[in-house]
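Quarterly update from the structural biology core.
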Amino acid sequence: MTQPTDIRRVPEALSLAAHGVPVLPLRAGKGPFGNCRTCAKNVCGGRPNMRTPGPCACPYPCHAWAAATADPSVLTSPQWAPSWRTAAALAYHPGGAGVTVVDLDDAEAIAWARATLPATRTVATTRGEHWIYQGVMQSVNAVRPGVDIKSLMSYARWLGPGRGTTTPLPAAVRALAVKEPAPARRTPQTLTVPFAGQSGACPHRTPAYLDRGIAIAVQRITDASSAVHATVYRAFLAVLSTHGRCGCLTDTHVNRLFTAAQAKGETVRHCTDAWTNARTALGLTA
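Predicted structure, tokenized:
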């Protein structure tokens, strides 16, 4: 076995592994490696940025969180040596270490945590903080603006031991991962108030212009991973600012927008209020 003790990140990785923390190297940009020749640069067709190992023929998983290990023979193996030589950072599998990381991306998220969550060990990051709790749970991104949960089937950058005492995982953090059933599973309700545009002259050259605008708005709503209320309102405002003063905007178009919003968890009442507020802001109310 080759012992690559001259590779600068290996000693720290071995130290963490000795304390039962599964670790792995990260590329520049915080992405994981395919840690063997077959999977180098992802030529095996695996998905090293996803949460499942790639479809490779390795004797052990070598992608992403599944590659994290506390086995020194794996960490110092020739297969992993190329990854360590070009590693930009060290990562670990929180769930494998028995902890959960609440990843706070900015000052607003930190302020929310300080006002909402019990104190625990904290680690400073480039833009925010990691709050580390004892206990594991499912990993969920964007549980609220600027907040991710990293535990099982996920990895986090190792940025040092931090400060403070690690406390038990609170119910408040577990509750963040619980999502209400999406109203989209029900048949979208019919609009009960008039929503069509005013009867002015239509300035659009073809119906395709309106269709494209609706499609863009629907896509923005569909892609929203946080602040869904605000995204829906802005999408409605954008549609109405262009199409709200002529007769081309019909209830069929608006139903498409409402359906997309309901698919993200909005209720018909939320949609109705957002639409009405957008019309009021643009002076389109009767």
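Confidence is low (pLDDT under 50) at residues 1-6, 46-56, 180-199.
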